[in-house]
Amino acid sequence: MNFDRNEIAALGGRTLDHLDWLEAEAIHVMREVAGQCENPCLLFSGGKDSVVMLRVAEKAFRPGRFPFPLLHVDTGHNYPEVLDFRDDMACHLGERLIVREVEESMRRGTVVLKSPIESRNRHQSVTLLEAIAEFGFDACLGGARRDEEKARAKERIFSFRDDFGQWDPKNQRPELWDLYNARVHRGENIRAFPISNWTELDVWQYIEREGLELPSIYFAHKRQIVRRGQLLQPVTDLTPAREGDVVEEMTVRFRTVGDITCTAPVASTARTVAEIIAETAGSSVTERGATRLDDQASEAAMEQRKKEGYF
């Protein structure tokens, strides 16, 4: 990845570190999407990876406006702290935020739950594809990283999706010498992942370097939980304790945030970014492996969801 003269000058002549190179690659990818695509959007949930994406977008396009709106697919079961943060961040940046809800798809009948207590997480795919069709998006910038789990490790940076919104890992375009091909026919789209090559540790180190704000649930706090195998499930109105469960109050934090019904916290006393970095450096379990109840059912769960149109 090459820096231009303005970018080198902005660094003040200091020695480049790995975060500078990762940031430069992410900026390059975002500018490629903006340059090649007619109508892109940036997926923004309020989570740490999408917060990093916003900072990269600022560095890529400020002082102008972003050349795309922000899009969030809300299951209706997200943590309120994260939704409040999402809205405040979009307002602070002065960027357009589009929210589409799984409940809207349920009212249309395009999403049908097997039971009232079924997790809505996997059904986000339907609502996302409906939003892509509604606004005619030809590219969605997302904050997925290859280190998260096996299916995402198979992704290209520019991930081609067919006119059904589906992903075929065996039918992707080569990416040689940082050259990306975003050409699509009407109805097809690209999912672009500028921080594909980042790790969870890189993300936290970048958050520390840039002084980025995050939802409070990323930091250690007390919460009632029950144990589900090796995972912890928070006790909420959506995920109440079952008969025979032992409810414990623990100090926990969230490594990733999403639908309440499938996002588990981890035991932690890390209350600062520096403490989280130290904790992350010593972890041998991926964040999804440690925190996603829905990914535990099958190693192929995420890959199947992505083939159906998931992020």
Q: What do the pLDDT scores average to?
A: 86
Oligomer: single chain
Output the radius of gyration: 19 Å
* Total separate domains: 2
Task: Classify the helix fraction into a percent range.
Answer: 25-40%
Strand portion, in percent?
Answer: 5-15%
| CATH topology-level name of the largest domain | Rossmann fold
Largest sheet: 6 strands, mixed
CATH architecture assignment of the largest domain: 3-Layer(aba) Sandwich
Please mark out the parts with pLDDT under 50 across 5 or more consecutive residues, or reply none.
295-299
Q: How many strands?
A: 10
Name the helix and strand elements from N-terminus to C-terminus, one letter apiece.
HHEHEHEHHEHEEHEEEEHHH
Rough outline: globular
Q: Terminal Cα separation, in Å? A: 26 Å
How does the helix and strand content classify structurally? alpha/beta
CATH class of the largest domain: Alpha Beta
CATH homologous superfamily descriptor of the largest domain: HUPs
Q: Give the helix tally.
A: 11
- Strand order, sheet with most strands: 3-2-1-4-6-5
